[in-house]
Each structure stands twice: as structure tokens, then as C-alpha cells.
């Protein structure tokens, strides 16, 4: 598979390391509007072909698929251009800035018949995959309650860099620079983590979002720091379970931690993922009576990168697809509306109201006439 890289930032470096490790994948060209960044990236990875515009790369055309690692607000236009050229697309999350754009991309990809996948990276977590299989196998019984959290601390720690001075972080705090805050950035990950692990879909949402004061006047240079830093969300699932989902960049002591707890009638599971390790614990069978939790060993799973390559080779669409990511984007969009309107919103389609034609009603005699008839009616046995 000949792969084009569109965008050469830090996430592109991570992706290319994964793709280069897959047999049969060749990184044939890179695209970026910044010539210095493009040169450094291409030199580092030994990529010969370099383009300063996607149009030029498409005109060249000697590639089968593209990894779209552009900034969030560029995903829509760049992916549509690649799809129109008949190229398979592996897009970084979130798919788009809103549900309407995400669905336009979905419809275009499906109509063109190209493989389309979104890099929801935590699908690569083996304990999550194994937990889902246990849920689908019925080992937990009916799912009743779900808890999910995504905790980061880069607003109180410099472990990842200093957001006060580095634009690679500042844009994530500003809606005018294309950010939907922690909800749009990592919210899509934890929503997918929760729904995928519990093997169900979200159909109701009520959310609260908050951007805390971080600088005098709420601004650093051209960046208005108004994107949400924390969110809490209560959700309803299609399988009838209730759930609580939350995320924050103020989670002191948690560099990057995802946690999911799934509670069923016959057992419970807990998945924890950190940069250094992942684990799955369960409380099942007789252990329920003593609330004893045990570690569960899990096998390795294919990564998103490996499954995208497989999908292109076989022509078979695999998850997470554009359509799935669009559905998650709808949850995010409704969460923003929910915060503004302070009410729960549903993702379920509206109920169709069928008009029943008026039926003829027999004319009723008045009450006086009925009473008179009763008074004059013969009593049984009377002549």
C-alpha cells in the first residue's frame, strides 16, 4: 500500500512510526503548507516526494491511501478532496468540527466506495477489546450502569510542555482557533471507550461544560482561552443502562488516564489505561458475594493502523468508520446544546405521529329520553 501523509505535525510522526512497521506499507509522499516543517519531517523519515499543497499531491496521484493528520478544522475539506480523487482515507480524530460536516464526509466516502477509518487510538487498548467480547458473550448479564473518565493534567503540569507559551497547546484552549475544548479533543475518545466497551450506543445526553480562568482577561496573545477544560455528562444507553462520563485537563496527578467501569447483573469489569500500562479487572461469579476483584489476562489485538491496511488490501470496511465517528460527533454537538439549554437531549429519531381519520359516531339521544325509556320499560314478569 502506497501511503500519502497529509500534515506533518507531532501526531503524524507517531502515525508514521506505526505504519512503517507494517509489512507492505510504503510512505511515498508528504504534504504540508509549512516548508520548514515538511522538510524536517520528510528528511527524518526518508520521504522523497514533498508537496506544499494537497492539490499538487492529488494531481501527482501515485498513492493508494492517505493518512489525514491535518488540524481538526481541516479534516473536512482535505478528506473530501481525497475521497473525490478515489483515495482511501485514514483520518485523525475528531472526524470534523460538527455533525453536519462529519455526515457529508461519511456520505461522500460511502458513495465513492473507499475505505474510511478514524483514528480513535484507544481502540488499540487490548483490555477494552477483551471487555467488549465478554459483554457481548453475556458474561456480565444485562448491563445496568457505566462509569467512564478521561483525566489529564497538562493545565497544572509541564510534563507535556508549557501551554502558556507553546501554540501547539494554546489552540486547544481557543474556540476561535478551531477547538471544542476537552469535549471535542478527548471527549470523543472517552465516549467511544464507554460505548464500545459496553457494546451499546448512547441515545440520551445531559452535559455541563466549563472553561476556568487561566490568564488575565482570559487571553494569551491572539488566543482567547474560552474552550471548555472540563465536562461532566450523564447519558442513557440503547441497552437501557445509565452512565456517567467525564473528562478534565485539571486532573492533578493524572498525566493521561482512561478508566471504564461496566456493571452488569452477573458481574462487573474495570478497564484502566495509562501511557505506561493497561489492565482489566473483573468481579465475576462467586466473587460477587465478597466483592473480590481479580486481574484478567488479555491477548494482544491489531492496531487501528494494521486494520486500516487490512481494509485497504481486502476492500472490506472496518471500524471505527467515518459513520461511527459522525455518530460520536452528534453526541458532542448535542452536549454543547445541552449545556446552553440546560436540558437532556435525545439522539433517537422523532416518533412518527400517524393521523387517524375521524370515525362516524352514532348520534346519542339526550339523557332525558334515555331516562324516560327506562321508566316505561316493562319489569320482568309484568303483563
Protein architecture, described:
The chain has 383 residues and is of the alpha/beta class. The protein has 2 domains: 2-122 and 306-314, NAD(P)-binding Rossmann-like Domain (Rossmann fold); 124-301 and 334-341, 2-Layer Sandwich (Dihydrodipicolinate Reductase, domain 2), CATH 3.30.360.10. It has 12 helices and 17 strands. The chain has helices spanning 10-20, 35-45, 54-60, 75-84, 99-112, 126-136, 167-170, 181-197, 287-290, 304-314, 322-341, 367-376, and strands spanning 2-6, 26-31, 49-51, 65-68, 88-92, 116-119, 143-152, 202-210, 219-220, 223-224, 230-237, 242-248, 256-264, 267-273, 278-284, 294-295, 345-346. The strands form 3 sheets. Strands 16-15-14-13-7-12-11-8-17 form a 9-stranded mixed sheet. Strands 3-2-1-4-5-6 form a 6-stranded parallel sheet, sandwiched between helices. Strand 14 and strand 15 form a beta hairpin. Helix 4 runs parallel beside helix 5, helix 5 (99-112) runs antiparallel to helix 11 and helix 8 (181-197) crosses helix 11 (322-341). The longest helix is centred in the last third of the chain and has 20 residues, at 322-341. The radius of gyration is 28 Å and the shape is globular. The chain starts with a strand and ends in a 7-residue tail after the last helix.
Amino acid at each position: 500500500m502506497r501511503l500519502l501523509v497529509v500534515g506533518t505535525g507531532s501526531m503524524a510522526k507517531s502515525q508514521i512510526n506505526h505504519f512503517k512497521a507494517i509489512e507492505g506499507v510504503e510512505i511515498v509522499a508528504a504534504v504540508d503548507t509549512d516548508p520548514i516543517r515538511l522538510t524536517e519531517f520528510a528528511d527524518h523519515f526518508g520521504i522523497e516526494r514533498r508537496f506544499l499543497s494537497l492539490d499538487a499531491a492529488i494531481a501527482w496521484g501515485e498513492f493508494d491511501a492517505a493518512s489525514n493528520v491535518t488540524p481538526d478544522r481541516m479534516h473536512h475539506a482535505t478528506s473530501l478532496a481525497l475521497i473525490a480523487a478515489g483515495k482511501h482515507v485514514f483520518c485523525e480524530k475528531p472526524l470534523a468540527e460538527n455533525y453536519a460536516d462529519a455526515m457529508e464526509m461519511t456520505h461522500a466516502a460511502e458513495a465513492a466506495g473507499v475505505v474510511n477509518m478514524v483514528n480513535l487510538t484507544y481502540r488499540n487498548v487490548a483490555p477494552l477489546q477483551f471487555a467488549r467480547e465478554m459483554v457481548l458473550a453475556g458474561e456480565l448479564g444485562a448491563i445496568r450502569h457505566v462509569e467512564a473518565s478521561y483525566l489529564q493534567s497538562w493545565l497544572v503540569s509541564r510534563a507535556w510542555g508549557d501551554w502558556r507559551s507553546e501554540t501547539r497547546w494554546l489552540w486547544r484552549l481557543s474556540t476561535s482557533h478551531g477547538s471544542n475544548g476537552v469535549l471535542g479533543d478527548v471527549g470523543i475518545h472517552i465516549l467511544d471507550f464507554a460505548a464500545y466497551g459496553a457494546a451499546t450506543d448512547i441515545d440520551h445526553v445531559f452535559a455541563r461544560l466549563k472553561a476556568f480562568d487561566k490568564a488575565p482577561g482570559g487571553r494569551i496573545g491572539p488566543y482567547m482561552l474560552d474552550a471548555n477544560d472540563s465536562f461532566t455528562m450523564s447519558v442513557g444507553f440503547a441497552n437501557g443502562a445509565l452512565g456517567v462520563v467525564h473528562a478534565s485537563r485539571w486532573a492533578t496527578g493524572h498525566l493521561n488516564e482512561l478508566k471504564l467501569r461496566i456493571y452488569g447483573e452477573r458481574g462487573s469489569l474495570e478497564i484502566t489505561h495509562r501511557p505506561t500500562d493497561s489492565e482489566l479487572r473483573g468481579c465475576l461469579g462467586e466473587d460477587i458475594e465478597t466483592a473480590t476483584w481479580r486481574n484478567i489476562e488479555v491477548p494482544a489485538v491489531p492496531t487501528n493502523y494494521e486494520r486500516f491496511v487490512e481494509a485497504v488490501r481486502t476492500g472490506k470496511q472496518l471500524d471505527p468508520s467515518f459513520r461511527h465517528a459522525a455518530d460520536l460527533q452528534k453526541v458532542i454537538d448535542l452536549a454543547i446544546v445541552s449545556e446552553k439549554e440546560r436540558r437532556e437531549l435525545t439522539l433517537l429519531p422523532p416518533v412518527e405521529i400517524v393521523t387517524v381519520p375521524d370515525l362516524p359516531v352514532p348520534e346519542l339521544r339526550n339523557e332525558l329520553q334515555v331516562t324516560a325509556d327506562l321508566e316505561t320499560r316493562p319489569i320482568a314478569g309484568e303483563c
